[in-house]
Amino acid sequence: MAGPMIILGHGVLEAALIIIIALGFAEAIHNERILGTVAIVGGVVLLWMAINIVKDIKNIKTDLISDRGAWGGPIVAGALTSLANPYWIIWWMTIGLGYVMVSLTFGLVGLVVFFIGHISADLLWYSIIAFLVSRGKRHLGKRLYGGILGVCALMLLFFGISFTVWGIGTLL
To answer: Is the pTM of this model over 0.70?
Structure first.
């Protein structure tokens, strides 16, 4: 159930963003200075995440059961993870913005249909991923899990550097 709950948090955040865009704030978030700043902040967050993953690889656990007492739970985690993801922000400032503008040509009904279709696709995809993780985690050894985390850290490092460099270039 964690996957659908995470998507609920993600969806609440996306609904708020779509409402903000529909109310006319598209011009403000399409500003290159804002895009550059978001890229730099997001890139730095990704670099920080990569460094922390590398530092924690030696202490990994294959028991992926979460702390049920964690603050906010999966709904808050879904919103915060989306908000911290520079790809999510840049996607909404570019492609997502275009989708919202096109859907608005059909009025409120078009916007609602777009949102329902978009969030349904997210829900389906991430529910499948959550199910596969829940069933496959027992087959993960520490070495394989550490390798997967290492590859993820390298990808975060690459994207963190890319976003930061692109953001600096945009601001200059």
So the answer is: no
